[in-house]
Amino acid sequence: MFFSKMTLDREAAISGRFRDLVTGPYQVHEVIWDLFADHPDRKRDFLYRAELTGRDPVVYLLSARKPVYEGNVWNILSKPFHPVLQKDDLLNFRIRVNPVVTKTEPDPDRKRIRHRHDVIMDAKRRLNEANSSFSMSDLVQQESVRWLRQRSEKGGFSLYEDRVIAGGYRKMQFSQGRKKNTISISVVDCDGVLRVTDPDLFLQMICNGLGPAKGFGCGLMMVKRAAL
């Protein structure tokens, strides 16, 4: 595996060429795919997280292959990724997630259809139906931590829930493909502290990503050593 950091070339930043290439989430998706498109039938074997709204745009990548780039907009620095972890290691983490769950529901034709539901919007709807007051920031925090907790055991980790901060909830909408189908993805940024409970499962989760929408910048968990 390789961990890479993409930073904007100084000249591209000054000239504005970057903004011409990256006009929305789907364009970012295409830019990243092009780094690994050595074969038309190639399946995704990378994760990424893009931070493009600040003064210094950056993209983080975790991939099975080293990215190949021949343009003049980005500078890419890659290094091998072979972390050595043990049970009970403490790690700071950062992750952008698409907090959804899949539910099976009947349709009018009595068929059972699987739908993905945004857990935050689901919780908001239930509270509104019950005429309960709530803070949106508290709701995002509560439901995002719950979503992470539900995936922690299979992911080989446990959360220090009082040290997890979830925020930046938003919806990304964009058109995809020739038919310009509209796609909507909700995302939340989570930062906190975790304990490794199963190193093998944890590394598998790191390499495969956590949750859906991995092809659109979600699921990459970045970690570093922590101390309580």
TrEMBL record:
Pfam families hit by this protein: CRISPR_assoc
CDD domains, sorted: Cas6_I-E
SUPFAM superfamilies: CRISPR-associated protein
Name listed for the protein in its UniProt record: CRISPR-associated protein, Cse3 family
Lineage, highest ranks first: Archaea, Methanobacteriati, Methanobacteriota, Stenosarchaea group, Methanomicrobia
